[in-house]
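pasting input
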Amino acid sequence: MRFLLALAVAVLFLAWFLFRAGETAPLLPSLQAVPSILRWWGGAAVLALGALFAGRAYCSVLCPLGTFQEAVWRAGRRRLSRYVPGSPARYWILALVLAAGAAGLAAVPALLDPYAAFGRGVTQLLRPSLAGGIDRLAGFLESRGLYGVIHRAGSIPFVPGLFWGTAAFFLVLTLWSLRKGRPFCDGLCPVGTFLGFFSRSSLLSIRFSGESCTGCGLCGTVCPQECISVEERKVDADRCVLCLRCVDACRGGGLALSFGGSGESLSRRGLLRIAAGTLAALGVAFWSSKKDDTVAAAASSWDEKLPVSPPGSKSRGNFSKKCVACTACVVACPAGILRPSLGEWGPEGLFQPVLDYGRGYCQYGCTACGDACPTGAIESLEPGEKQLVSIGKARFLRRNCIVRKYGTACGACSEHCPTQAMRMVPFRGSLTIPELDTAVCLGCGACEYACPAEPKAVTVSGLAVHGKIRPVSGGNEGPTVAPLEDFPF
Amino acid sequence: MDRREFLKKTAALGLGGAALLLPGSVRRVLGAREGLPGLAAVRGGEPGEMFDRGVAALGGMERFVKKGQTVVIKPNMSWDVPPERGGNTNPGLVERIVRRCLEAGASRVYAFDHTCDLWRNSYRNSGVEDAVKRGGGVAVPADTSGYYQKVPLPGGRALKETAVHELMIECDVFINVPVLKHHGGAGITMGMKNLMGTVWNRGEFHSKGLHQCIADVSLFRKPALTVIDAYRMMTRNGPRGTSEGDVTLLKAQILSTDIVAGDAAAARIFGADPKNVSYIRSAAGMGIGTMDLESLGVERIAL
């Protein structure tokens, strides 16, 4: 039952990442540990309370990466050794993640967050082949005149570094899981280690009952965490994920899920441990919720072009602290212009997405990325609100413009500009040439994408702190009613 | 319907029916001689209603669509804006045309546009995709290069070839349904400019000379009928517009068998002299059509 539930959760996750990101609220991802802490500082306290009640059941039910490992291991049907003591390295990893998070090096927590790692696995490894299949099927139907039966899934930006990194991660994890059950949960996962502080004093736990246990040791061989010591009749409560494999395997009812006080009572040491863990988590969460006061930076020259962060991310500071590079927004973006970065945000922002106006432009009324983001790195905006948020500013270099260069009519930039920040004004003869009003420029990139000049006559540079434009004039104006009185011919 | 109109319609239908019995080549020559007008201008009604009156004056839908033919309609649904903004062809008009094609015996009616804004959003929010479906037609995607095939443009001055949507090659009847708008780059957009949404590489138009390319692309396939929607006319900030304030509720429509004449008439409605619109002048010079409306026969209808 527990495994079926976990599988269902993981499948829902998969489906959300593949098809629904940006269209339905990220309810499921919002229940994930790291996103919930990043979104709301109280998320850490809720998780801690949860672990005090139900131990690390989170790992065996809600975490899709945990379920992935369990599924792989079950498929391999390999029995494990009876007991391996927990490695102290996990504490150092947790400390490293907390320190890096506090120092603003988002890439470290991003790489080790199980939610984000699972998300990258889906979007990088699973989605391309699935989308390819869908597109081929659509093509086949269209070749038979059946248009619009299924829509093409389209492709998302391919970033080789991210693809190969993700592929390597999942290859290693798969091989390792076949041998060791849940190696990520046991030795690496910062969320698991954090929950472990509290699960030691959990109300729900697995306990041996002295009379029924024959000491056969079967339970130890089915435990994916290798945390059952049959000799000592003891389960390491900080590592046990309450997957109940041992309880199912035990023939004589030698161990059971028990309620009310674990083996270890709440000693002074235990309380201190809980207090320290809570403080550390709250500290990081509080730090990441702090307002960001970075001064608005602007590109200093035509050649310098600052990267653009998604609408709703508010500022480079907010975005870099909260984005775990799960790539949900990348698949949600209907224009396909959100691309995981390689160097644009510096090494600390590895894989955090950037808007790529070479591929398209940010659609005026679209709020899909913010609707998909579970961490608050991109806040969900109302379309009306979003249409006033300036994420960058266009720069127009007149000498590159083909109207001036070749004396030919164009206006592609102005055509696409939703606010007429680029508007056409009289030039020579009947020609018109763009004129830029940055006060109403959203930085959406429509002008840059549409500009046919080579090199571009208009490019957009990102704003380190997003701004607000004044509403475009005549927002509430109605049409002029003037039915044609007579034909002018 | 008054008596005069009734007689006219009956006569037109009768002649149209008789013409159907003749071989195609003879029919085409007779088409002009029968005295059917080549252009109908309608004002003062709702879009669907104006279309019905206009097409009746041109000889009825049967003049353009025969039983079993496949029809492609090319509306403008390029922008992710609602119908009130006048950025796209009126959905009510598109629905009516689709329905009339099917009633005339069309086997299938398709509609597509190579959109500027994202195609899913533009198709949906323009209201045109729904209108096509309501009318009984199919809204076909046009967002990837796979749908396009390279064709020569013999006689083209700036463009010698271009890739057009496969349906433009395969269909039996092509009906062009643009909306009349201000256009920052081309001045005014209507019939010929709307054909830019049938090609893949639009950027090329801008770099090779917009006006000449618009005229050249009209060489590939002349529409059997061009219906220019001027129900809501965008008078500034075009072609996308920024608010409803950019729109004039004009309640007019031009239907023409000659795309150049249709554009010339629409330009006058917009308040411009067609001779000052480069692509109209070029196209007329290349013999794609005529700017001389009277030579075509004009029917003016007020509702």
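fyi Chain A has a mean pLDDT of 88.
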